[in-house]
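Entry:
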Amino acid sequence: MEFRQLGHSGLQVPVLSFGAGTFGGATEFFKAWGSSDVAEATRLVDICLEAGVNLFDTADVYSRGASEEILGKAIAGKRNRLLISTKATFPMSDGPNDLGSSRHHILESCENSLRRLGVDHIDIYHMHGFDALTPIEETLSTLDTLVKSGKVRYIACSNFSGWHLMKSLSISERYGWSRYVGHQVYYSLIGREYEWELMPLALDQKVGALVWSPLGWGRLTGKIRRNQPLPKVSRLHETAAYGPQVVDEYLYKVVDALDEVAKETGKTVPQVALNWLLERPTVVNVIMGARNEEQLRQNLGSVGWNLTKEQVAKLEAASNTQPAYPYWHQRQFANRNPIPTSPR
């Protein structure tokens, strides 16, 4: 398993991590992702560790805490062999202070996550979304306190806009506080908006990308094609409206290209899609989900080989879209605004 440095930090993380959003299935939304119990979760954790995947990602909001609880039981006795990433920001109840990135909510959320996970520290602690109502100074000073206390090792963010992240980094620098070293982002062959602004920012500021939903919210599994119904088991039946929206013909065009490359390489469509991401600039880690052992082992086969330049070009041509303003305008002056999409 290849390891890469997480942004402007000394932490080495594997290029693949396991997303524990499939653990628990405690709500209808997360049941559509998966519902692994402790026994199955333990088996999946062990397979990951055998393959060198030692980073496990979850969040307090996943199945209302059940994901963290099951992950905690699955890693019992193995804590010194792995890294844990979890998140806070989204509401866990109807309480007026049980959401956001306030000092009150962060401290309470961190303690609750530590308890559910059964650990004494979190390796990577994310703000799951940007809270525009809480002063950024309050958020970052609280996170810095958690780092200094040893309860959190590194801090990261998720789903931030460019100015959210840049302002946060500037404030951390001003006060000498811990800075975001990672940004958990949506990025896939059918969702390349990350490249427009967040990727150049990440290159400039040394912020590593940890990619969620690398298979386009379940659309790049190889099971969705023209003139075919959705497979019986798919998160799209229940959650399509909550994820990235994709025009059908665009999706089919990308899948056609993936099919061609899959045949050329002898790999599966998901393996090709994941491998493409791992060669993108700033991408440090891709979070893979799996309902079961079969899916996990297939995803593990996305590393240890590389696409050719011609295959990359074929995939990028099929997935290319016209960016929004001002990015389309900037691309007319590429000699002064280079597009950082060449392989690592």
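The mean pLDDT is 93.
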